[in-house]
Task: structure prediction
Amino acid sequence: MTEQSEQDQRRRRLAAWRACDRVLWRSSADRRIGERLSALAADARSVYDLDEWTDIYGNGVVGELEQRVAELLGFPAAVYFPTGTMAQQVALRCWAGRTGNTTVALHPMAHPQVHERGAFGALSGLRTVHPTSEPRLPTEDDVRDFEEPFGALMLELPLRDAGFVLPAWDELVAVVEAARSRDAVVHFDGARLWECVSHFGRPLEEIASLADSVYVSFYKSLDALSGAALAGPTDLMDEARAWRHRYGGMLFQQYPAALSALLGLERELPRLPSYVAHAKLVAAALREGLAAAGVPWFRVHPGEPHTHQFQVWLAGDAEALNEASLTQAEETGVTLFRRWFTEGCPPGIAVTEVTVGSEGLEWTGEDVRDAVEEFVRRAG
Result:
């Protein structure tokens, strides 16, 4: 597919999703520029005094956001970053300087391993090892018995590419204790940590307290424009600010992203537990609908979602499944599935990610089953 045809297909998808009356979730990237700017201008005054001066190199509204995140996560300080990739680069290299060990233990499906072009090694001189390759977070035994020393254990919560999966609370505590018994620090890749509260049955601050440092994203679940934060001890955050500057992350002004993050914390964060709860209903109805439609092989994973996101696996051609999903949106005004992929799948299998957001709360089990029946008919 040429670059032009890819752009045309993207515009077609965005137009279809935007025009739909019924969706399980709308991405912030589905909206036009004017719509996002108008919404931000209309809503931002509810979270920050817009008569204040704009931020310059991280003060003002950016500092306000940092303080808010530090309080939410129970750390003495936090630092705003333009990207999570940069935030975690900085965190792990700072810890390596303190521990004297540049080896980071993490899952091979973790974001830095799969989606960041080997940045840990290329930019920060870090080496990665994998306590397990199973599609789950490492266990206490995996960490305690791993054959090599490591300076930091990095845990992605939830582990997205394995199906947004989480361990049980007691299992997470045991893993952290096993790392500490090896004199390793623990860092949470918490890009989606916000929605883990329901699964663990613990407040956000208690979850974060298990780690020595935590990274969180503002756009993945909170609908912000962009941005991330790193939270941890004050001296680590002071060093992180220096490395943020060296990595090119000390932007002149960032108030649109910072304001949208404050709005996300105010509006979306309290609603995430309802999305997580409803995702369980949606997943069950999807399973029922696919079975009733006579689909020969499928998997909803996890069977009961740990967060408001999960995977659906089907036997079939990804291109045909994408066309069925898109024509369903265009012709019926209902978006059930968005995009199907084959990366990491066995031959003949495709996977999609399902997210339940505010508009998904309106869907009943019957709505889901009806949409599945229509999708399967189109997929042939």
Remarks:
- The chain is about 45% helix and 15% strand.
